[in-house]
Amino acid sequence: MLYAVVDIETTGGFASGNGITEISILIHDGVSVIDMFETLINPAQEIPEYIQALTGINNEMVIDAPLFSDIAPKVYELLHDKTFVAHNVNFDFSFVKHQLSLAGYQLQCNKLCTVRLSRKILPGHRSYSLGKLCNALGIEINNRHRAGGDAAATAILLGMLLQADAEGIINQSLRKASKEQALPPNLPKSEIEKLPLSPGVYYFKDQKGKVIYIGKAKSLKKRVCSHFTGNSTSKQRQDFLKDIYSVDFEVCGTELMAFILEATEIKKLWPTNNRALKRFEQKYSLYAFEDQKGYIRLGIDKFKKNTPALYSFNTILEGHNLLKALIKEHLLCEKLCFIQKNRQACTAYEEGNCTGACVGKESAAAYNVRVKYAIEDLKKMLPSFAVIDKGRTEDEQSCLLVEEGKFYGMGYISHHADINAPEELKSVLQPYPSNDYILHMILSHTEQFPQKKIAI
């Protein structure tokens, strides 16, 4: 068996929005390295400063380097018939597979994670990060945080794991037993074997590779296999099972992240067999606009996808209650805020409790000052916080960011990241669309686990 030991350097933490800046591939025959390939890569985007500081790779170094599409044929040739090996393999594999797919190559191969294997074959170490584990094992890493240095160390680690694997754990990892007779007729056993026991989101695909169902899981393998239990012979179920040809997945650090990713992916891809989350739609939002007389108007309206909103609500009553609180606190006009309609002046003016903006007695400039204060107060009322939890490995932690009452995004950060620096967090988190369904999930989670919430 041949192994391809891979290490990459990237511009960020997720494959779809970031590029590869360096790749090293070492072909290992189980005894030693027999071939190698290494190059800097032009990621076609700026390299963030903190990543330049970590890796030493800057924009000037990659400007004349090949694009990934230029080296894709060579990379695919080296990888497609090998077992893909990396330390935290899902990270490296996700980037390489994504970049290959953009170049027209579909990478399908077995994977081995030297983090997971080390935990099983070499138990008892305090840390299984590459640096600390290699230090404990006496493996010297030259050029740390560069693809070549880290790949070389991983190749040495792989050799040690192969020698120490008296129980055949590596072969078991590649050929895990499953009840093959329970699988759908067109789904290869290998599709189940590749699934980890981690939280995440899974995608059932048909013969053409189209996603027909998306689900979340606390344990990907267990949840996927649960679809194939039971004895229902309904046409709907049988057609569903018959159409499953492959399973793709994305590992998440926590079940909450899987919930959010599932909701987002269903709204984006609209799979045929998903129904419940398709029905969720944002209902109402609070908007601000300036009318023809120069007055800034606040009002509740149906959610508009491409119009910036101050805040969103599931019910119009919830929106009106918030707006009335702002009106009372800042002496705004109910008529200009569309609370009162079909009247020449608001009730408060007729009762002598209004400055008269609705009938032109107060200038737009004076009235707008209070409206702007109301908007600022609204922003202060809306929570900004991060949810910090376990990552996909012990070398990272997961982070969800809520900013001024809206879900900004999520991703994985270092244990040493400055949580109280929102802009720094944003540079490493993947943005996601916010809606009340997702925000409610996050708020419910933080009520249950307040220790995971960090105010920003």
Automatic annotation (TrEMBL):
**Does the record bear Hydrolase in its keywords?**
yes
Database matches in PROSITE patterns:
GIY_YIG
Which SMART domains does the entry mention?
EXOIII, GIYc
Family annotation (CDD domains): DEDDh (cd06127), GIY-YIG_UvrC_Cho (cd10434)
Name the keywords, alphabetized: Exonuclease, Hydrolase, Nuclease
Where in this chain does the record put each GIY-YIG domain? Answer: 197-275
* Record keyword Hydrolase present: yes
List the molecular function annotations (GO) for this entry.
exonuclease activity
State the name under which the record lists this protein. Answer: Exonuclease domain-containing protein
Species annotation: Pedobacter panaciterrae
